[in-house]
Structure formats: structure tokens, C-alpha cells
Write a structure and sequence with these properties.
Blueprint: H1 8-30, H2 35-72, H3 80-109, H4 120-134, H5 141-148, H6 153-157, H7 164-185, H8 187-212, H9 215-229, H10 232-237, H11 239-262, H12 267-284, H13 287-300, H14 306-318, H15 322-336, H16 347-360, H17 370-381, H18 396-421, H19 427-431
Helix pairs in contact: 1-9, 2-7, 2-8, 2-9, 2-13, 2-14, 3-11, 3-14, 3-15, 3-16, 3-18, 4-17, 7-8, 9-12, 11-12, 11-15, 11-18, 12-13, 12-18, 13-14, 13-18, 14-18, 15-16, 15-17, 15-18, 16-17
Amino acid sequence: MHRKKVSFSKRVFTGLGLGILFGFILHIAYGADSEILAESVSWFNIVGTGYVKLLQMIVVPLVFISILGAFTKVTIGKNFGKMAGMILGILVGTTAIAAIVGISASLLFGLDASEIVQGEAETARGLSIEERSAGMADKALPNQILDLLPANPFLDFTGARPTSTIGVVIFAAFLGFAYLALVRRDEENANLVKKGIDALYSLIMGVVRIVLRLTPYGILAIIARTVATSDFAAIYSLGKFVLASYVALIIMFIIHLVIISISGLNPITYVKKTAEALLFAFSSRSSAGTLPLNIKTQTDRLGVPDGVANFAGSFGLSIGQNGCAGVYPAMLAIMIAPTVGQNPLEPTFLLTLIVVVAISSFGVAGVGGGATFSAILVLSALNLPVALAGLLISVEPLIDMGRTALNVSGSMTAGVATARAGGELDKDIYNGSIENQSIEA
């Protein structure tokens, strides 16, 4: 298809379709738990999981050099504080709105945790969550903010901490401001630094382009694995919760489109141009793995400057994820509240829940299993039993697909709205033909 000049978008959606078909064939032929299927999955994980690992490989270098390069191109300067504040405000604000949407969906569908059958897997997951929550007492907001700061930036370059990406962003920003000061004091050395940064940027973007060309194969393998190993009986038994979750996620995505419209931009254009990135986020369930696609989509298709795109994408990994830190914990809290005699319709409880969800969204999503981490924080703060969060283990992967796509959309919405408000959005790129804006180019 590539040799025949078929567009990148069509190749990605072809990969999705073939993956679904292949997954169903494997599922019907062998069942979700067979040893043959497990062995097959381990082999095509080389393509699917391997692709995600390659994306994760370039996340830190891409974020670091892009933000530093934005300072040398003077796309970040006097408006840095205003830009960062607006991005954070949109991320946290939309998370509070996502909590309201999650609450509404739970009440509309009448979700109640006491109606869900608790088997051995759910009990084991609940005990695991209880043990994990015991070691999280120190995760108050001040401690979460301190976790974002890079005490050792070289450690953060290894990705050793859950908030390593944010640490790299902050370190790059400090170097950027140091560069701006150097320009005023020593222009000769500043020009030398700029040339070195520009050369590294070109090299890293070359690696990004090589990896992104593998996207159709990665999506095919990932979605095939997901469909082949899904427990459709469990999905059917918890169908009401799955349906309520996706209703909430879709409503929140529509709210993203409303924000785009308020910014004076065509929301349909936004949907068309973000489709590949959102599709990969949906199939991979990895916000971090989607970051290179996220940033390239913002810059190459939506007209967002490098600096804004990198800040929005990077902050969106660990702050204010609408799906994992907004919709999901709010829905769980409403479900679990009746099991301990708490009236979920009590105004004080609802207001407290929304505030707790918004505050707890700092530093949550960058952790592996971010939705569970967020749920633990919210349920613990409201004195609700955290073990009941394990009831949904059988449908967790299916719901997490939609949550991850919404998380990525939230960060891209923050980038577009911030760039538009600051007068930095390139409308010619935003409104340009998608056929001439392949993110693999």
C-alpha cells in the first residue's frame, strides 16, 4: 500500500481492520485461554509490544530536544508562564468536568457495586489494591507536586520515576531560559549552542519518522491480541458498566470538540486530523507510547508550535488525564458509595468528590496502572472501600482503551486551545488538506 502511495491514514485503518479480523479468527479457533493462543500472542507481541517500546524509546529524547529547540526558535519566551498555566488549567479543569460526566453516567445507569458478582479473580485484585493503598498515605497534593521536580535529571532521562517525563520537561525549560540569558551575554556561544540543538533535533526527528512508519503494523498486532484474548462472557455480564463508561467517555470527547469550537476552529477537522493518534492510543492503552504521535499530530496537522505541543503532550501524561483520573474514579465512587450507606446524591458528597478528583489528578496518570492509582487516591480520600475497585478486572482492558484515547485527546485539546488563545496557532496548517500532512513524513 505504501508503494502504491496509499495515504498513511488509510494504511492505519486497514491495519485496524485486519487486526480485528485476525483476532476474531484466533479467538474462535482457540478460545481466549488456550495454550496455542498464548504462544501465538507471545510471537506477534514482538510486533505490537515491540512497536510500543520503540515509541517509548524516543519519548524522552523527543520531549527534551523539542522543548529546548522551542526556546532557540523563540517560540517560548515571555509567554512561558501564561502558556504553561493555561495548559495546566485546561487539563485540570476538563478533569473536573470529566468527574461530573462520570457521576452523571453512573447515576443515569443506576450502577451499584453490590450488584456485581465477586469471584476469585476479583477478590485477589481487591486484596492487591488494598495492599497498594496502604503505602500511598503520603500522596497528598504537596507531595505529588514535589514528585514532579527533577532532583536528578539524568535519572529522569532513564525513565526511572513515574513522573520522569515531567522532570525532563522542567529540566529542558531551565536550560532554555539559560540559553535566552546566554543570547544576551554571549551571542557567539549562543549561536554555537543553537546549531548543536538544531542538529540534534533533526537527528531525533529522523528516528521519530522511522518509528512512525511502523504504525499500521503495530496497530494490527496490538488489536489482534486484544480481540483474541478478550473474555466476551465477562464483558456481557458487566455490559451495563461498560456501556455507561463509554457513554461518559463519548460525552467528554464531545466536550473536547466544544472547546475546539469555542476556540473558533472546526471540530470536524480536529477529529479527522487526530484520528490516527487516538486510534493508536485506543489500541495500545499507552498514553506515553502515544506521545510521539500526539506531538507530531499537533505540530504537523493542527498547527500548534513545538513548545506548546510538547508541554501539552508531556504534562498530559501525568496531570489531569480526563479518562483515567476523571471519569473512572468518579464512576467508581458513585458505584461504591451505597455499599457503605453513603447517599451518592448528597450535594456535599458530590462536591467533595469533584474537588478530590481534580486535585488527585496531579501526578497520577504517569504511573503504571494510572486509573487504579487514581481510584485508590479518590476512594481513600472519601473513606470508601478501595478493595471494591477490583470488581471490574475482567473488563478493565476494554474500558482502558477508551480512557486512554480520551486522555490523549484531552492533552491535544489543551495544546490547540492554548495555541489559539495565544495567537500562535497556524490556521493554514490546521485547515490544510490532511493528504499533504502525513505524520510519518
